[in-house]
Amino acid sequence: MRCGVLAGLCVALVGVCVHVPKPCEAHLELVAPILKKLTAQWKADKMSLLGHKCHYYGTLTGTGVKQYYYGKFSCPGLADFSGMSKAKDKLESMVAAAKDFLLQAFKLGIIKLQDAVSWLEAKCLGLGC
Questions:
Q1: How confident is the model at residue 10 (pLDDT cuts 50, 70, 90)?
Q2: Less CB within 10 Å around the terminal CB: N or C of the chain?
């Protein structure tokens, strides 16, 4: 009888561990909406994230079909690192660099889930967000 109960508890525990999202995976759902908002800000030339001004720098290198934008996305007041990218299109390069930045910031705990949700719910596109 005891073995059956113990086995049942082990199965239940494994089931809970498999079905509960890991903290590092929960932020993945927020990356796409954050990128959408940052892209709109970039097009309006007013990028900010969680109240910090952000910058994108893109450098076009190469010639002909071998041209690429090497991108760098940073938010100096928020984090001391940058997101990096390489893409054929300037917008694609900005989005990829911003995504790289966001993934690093979430992984390091610089951006908290609740802060990201609150920022997404804010209805502004400027430094007030």
A1: very low
A2: N
**CA atoms of 12 and 127, how far apart (whole Å):** 47
Place of tokens 């001391």: 80
Instruction: Provide the 8-state DSSP code for 89.
Output: S
Q: Are 30 and 113 in contact (CB under 8 A)?
A: yes
Q: Which residues pair with 83 in a beta bridge?
A: 73
What's the burial of 14, exposed, middle or buried (CB within 10 Å: 0-12/13-18/19+)? Answer: exposed
Alpha-carbon gap, residue 60 to 90, rounded angstroms: 8
Whether the per-residue pLDDT at 118 is higher than 50: the answer is yes
Q: Are 89 and 69 spatial neighbours (Cβ–Cβ below 8 Å)?
A: yes
- Kindly list the structural domains of the chain, giving each domain's residue range(s) and its CATH number in brackets, ordered by start: 23-121 (3.30.160.320)
- What dihedral angle (degrees, nearest 10) is formed by the CA atoms of 90, 96, 102, 104? -120
